[in-house]
Design goal:
Structural class: alpha/beta
Helix content: 25-40%
Strand order of the largest sheet: 9-22-21-20-19-23-24-25-26
Number of helices: 24
Strand content: 25-35%
Distance between the termini: 76 Å
Number of strands: 32
């Protein structure tokens, strides 16, 4: 079997190498690798690319994806390989190999761009072309390529979503007579002490605090502590006879304790009810030796950036940040060591391991790591407390040079005693098990810092009018100092991309479920706007999740009607005959169609159940916004008078038309089209129309300002395609097209139609079919013509040619 597989793979290598030699010679990557492109989809200037590469190059090879124009490199980024089921099937493997790649790119270019997979190693470089990005701008010199999901990306938030609770988690039951001893070593730092004690006793747990003054040279420190201890019998000042260093001060304090202990540095600021959360794991598990909270500066406990000394995120204070962490249901993740700035130590572990090693670590740094490693050796474990955040003003006690020297010396001693320590820490840092929880908290902190109103927009990444509308609306929000949160489902990646924008700042994260994405952002949101849900997985459940979050977070809901997904999963009310269904008044017809199209395999069991879920969402909305009167009629036909429908037509920028050149009597009639020509936008109508023009040898041509669908190719001497365009280019292109009239052949009832508005704005005659918003626009326009959707190709052709002839003088 293995011999057959090797032979088969060898033959494939030869075949692919031959392709590479033909295209680029030996510089083609396919001469040294199997390269497959499984998806290369371009829509509205966005590329979705997926593929895999089985490389036979040296192991030090580094792969990247590059975009090039005629002058060279435009954009490049390294490949992060992922599992590839496609490669598994092709290569006949038992498991998905980690040789897959994918990317999403937004581009705008006046010239064609080429996308390459590149490999570079110490002795060479090879690449191979994956596909071409067709020019989508007529402005000379325009070229821009970006990864839309790169800026401010913080990754997945899944673990944070799993742990996050809408309300504070239940507190554990504290045993009767439970008492905690808190040890605070002190050397000078009066202002730090004052900050520490603000919330030191903000707890319902019985406790004693031992301030161990290690011969402070500032007389104000013992004076302050004496006054503090006189006011509160739980506080006790212990003065060392001589300055013995940090660790000896801790041990002096430990010698006075009888129960579980908390070690606190003076450079710590605490939130309310901190002690209950810090000691909880000790009470829940007698094998816990130490427990450490999140902090801004605590290596493996650091937030927001792991292993770094951070300032408080976004300028928030300790109480504000802790209000986020306090809502996590803790999992008490095991760590190789606690961090001694704020560390709870169990009495069980202290009795088993003893105190800190003052002889080795007298001045501090490394003593808690040593103790925690000793505890692990004795059968205990060290944990993180995920529902607590404290502020650590790190570096206030020791100067940086002194700290650096101490760390280097003490780390050597620690590794000599525990050879596994560096390996354990390195493994923990590589896995970074709480990364997703940090990302969740970081996103919430970002939102908490934003003072303006916050709107959450639910949408897809399929482009089109709904996406264009949303871009403009978000731009207006940002210009008005509002915060815009976009939750966008990617069909290509099967994941939700979330972007939080405020001013010129942005963070992004990803979520596998809509509920998780909403939980991150809705606690700070004022409004949820449903822009477009087409393509959302498990749509029925998604509708329930939205209504649940609207109620639980008390957000205002707004639903925008860009299509008719809420009436029928067909979205555009197109039936199996590829024409508008007429939205039959007899409900059984809709039920029959629903069954025939097997919508029940993906959506609800019946059209009734499907519309019931949508109706609940619509009724929960403060506003259901339609952009045309026809949309209002369609909605009311399906759902009745729901009482919250608001007509709010889109604002369309005025286009200054360039005056076309006069035409001679014998010049061909030119019927213009604008936009992307897809099936529901009338591609079949245009194909029939061209057949009619050719069969009758008419002096008529059709010019498309835009492009045809990738799956629909038109070959005709009477058809010209200009390609993608930008709105500001439209008047110039309209003149270049030579159009006498513009025909909008959409066969579904448009909810607004920007294209019709743009044609009217430029002053060109407009012909449409008799349905939807396009009929409204054409019937109310002095140069408009409304045609029956049921016209035969011959009659449609005659009507358009006659209209063009009548209007030619008007255009001149």
């Amino acid at each position: 079997m293995s011999f057959k597989v090797n032979v088969k793979t060898g033959l494939r290598r030869l075949k692919w190498a031959a392709w590479g030699l033909v295209h680029q010679g030996f510089s083609d990557l396919r001469t040294s690798a199997l390269v497959a492109v499984t998806d290369f989809e371009v829509n509205d200037g966005r590329l979705h690319l997926r593929g895999w590469v089985k490389s036979y190059l040296p192991e030090d090879s580094v792969f990247s994806i590059s975009v090039k124009d005629k002058d060279g490199l435009v954009y490049s980024f390294p490949v992060e390989f992922v599992d590839s089921p496609a490669a598994k099937n092709y290569l006949g493997l038992d498991e998905d190999p980690k040789i897959g790649f994918f990317c999403v790119l937004d581009y705008l270019s006046s010239l064609d761009l080429e996308v390459y997979l590149c490999a570079e190693w110490s002795m060479g470089f090879k690449d191979t072309r994956l596909g071409v990005l067709k020019a989508n701008s007529s402005s000379a010199g325009t070229v821009s390529v970006v990864n839309p999901y790169l800026e401010g990306q913080i990754g997945s938030v899944e673990l944070g979503s799993l742990c996050y609770l809408g309300q504070l988690p239940n507190r554990i039951t504290v045993p009767d007579n439970y008492h905690v001893d808190i040890v605070v070593p002190v050397f000078n730092g009066l202002e730090l002490l004052k900050s520490l004690v603000i919330n030191l006793s903000n707890t319902k747990i019985a406790h004693s605090v031992y301030f161990i003054d290690d011969c402070s040279t500032d007389d104000a420190v013992p004076a302050f502590l004496n006054e503090l201890c006189e006011k509160d019998p739980r506080y006790q000042l212990v003065s060392a006879k001589e300055n013995g260093g940090f660790v000896k001060s801790v041990n002096l304090g430990l010698s006075l304790t009888t129960g579980d202990v908390v070690l606190l540095n003076t450079d710590v600021q605490l939130p309310p009810l901190w002690l209950e959360r810090l000691v909880a794991p000790l009470l829940l598990d007698d094998k816990v030796a130490s427990a450490t909270p999140f902090t801004n500066s605590g290596t493996i406990c650091s937030f927001p950036r792991f292993l770094e000394n951070n300032s408080l995120a976004f300028g928030l204070d300790v109480v504000e940040i802790d209000s986020i962490f306090s809502h996590f249901q803790p999992i008490y993740n095991e760590v190789p060591t606690g961090v001694g700035f704020c560390m709870a130590c169990s009495r069980n572990a202290l009795d088993a391991v003893g105190f800190l090693d003052s002889d080795t670590y007298g001045r501090g740094f490394g003593e808690e790591n040593d103790w925690c490693q000793s505890a692990i050796k004795a059968g205990f474990k060290n944990v993180m407390v995920e529902n607590l955040f404290v502020f650590h003003n790190h570096g206030a006690t020791f100067q940086s040079d002194e700290k650096k020297a101490l760390i280097e010396d003490h780390l050597k001693k620690l590794n000599q005693r525990f050879p596994n320590y560096n390996v354990d820490v390195a493994r923990y840092c590589e896995v970074n098990p709480l990364k997703e929880l940090r990302s969740f908290a970081y996103a919430q902190a970002f939102l908490k810092n934003i003072l303006g109103s916050k709107t959450v927009y639910l949408t897809h990444d399929l482009g089109g009018g709904a996406s264009s509308y949303l871009k403009r609306r978000i731009a207006a929000d940002l210009a008005a100092n509002k915060c815009a949160v976009t939750i966008e489902y990617s069909v290509f990646e099967r994941i939700f991309h979330v972007a939080i924008q405020s001013g010129d700042k942005q963070i992004q994260f990803v979520s596998s479920t809509l509920s998780d994405a909403l939980d991150v952002v809705c606690s700070s949101a004022d409004k949820i706007v449903v822009n477009e849900l087409a393509s959302y997985p498990h749509l029925g459940r998604a509708l329930e999740v939205i209504t649940e979050r609207v109620e639980s977070y008390r957000c205002v809901l707004e639903v925008l009607i860009h299509d008719y997904l809420m009436i029928c999963p067909s979205i555009n009310l197109i039936n199996s005959s590829k024409r508008y269904c007429g939205l039959p008044g007899i409900f059984c017809d809709c039920s029959k169609c629903y069954r025939n199209e097997k919508f029940y395999d993906v959506y609800e069991d019946s059209i009734v159940a499907y519309r019931v879920k949508w109706r609940r969402l619509l009724l929960d909305a403060e506003e259901v916004v339609v952009f045309s009167e026809s949309s209002r009629r369609y909605l009311e036909s399906a759902f009745g008078d729901i009482g919250n429908i608001v007509l709010r037509p889109h604002e369309v920028p005025s286009l200054i038309s360039n005056k076309p050149a006069k035409k001679a009597p014998g010049d061909p009639i030119v019927i213009g089209l604008i936009g992307r020509l897809t099936e529901h936008k009338g591609s079949l109508i245009i194909k029939e129309l061209l057949n009619e023009i050719e069969s009758r040898d008419l002096n008529v041509s059709i010019s498309l300002i835009g492009k045809t669908d990738d799956d629909f190719e038109i070959k005709s001497d009477h058809f010209i395609e200009f390609g993608e365009y930008r709105l500001e280019e439209l008047p110039k292109l309209a003149v270049e097209s030579g159009a006498d009239i513009f025909f909008f052949p959409s066969v579904w009832p448009e909810t607004f139609s920007y294209v019709c508005s743009e044609i009217i704005s430029m002053g060109y005659p407009l012909a449409t079919f008799d349905l939807g918003a396009q009929q409204e626009k054409a019937s109310g326009y002095e140069k408009g013509l409304v045609l029956s959707l049921g016209l035969s190709p011959s009659n449609l052709c005659d009507a358009l040619v006659s209209f063009a002839k009548d209007c030619r003088d008007l255009i001149q």
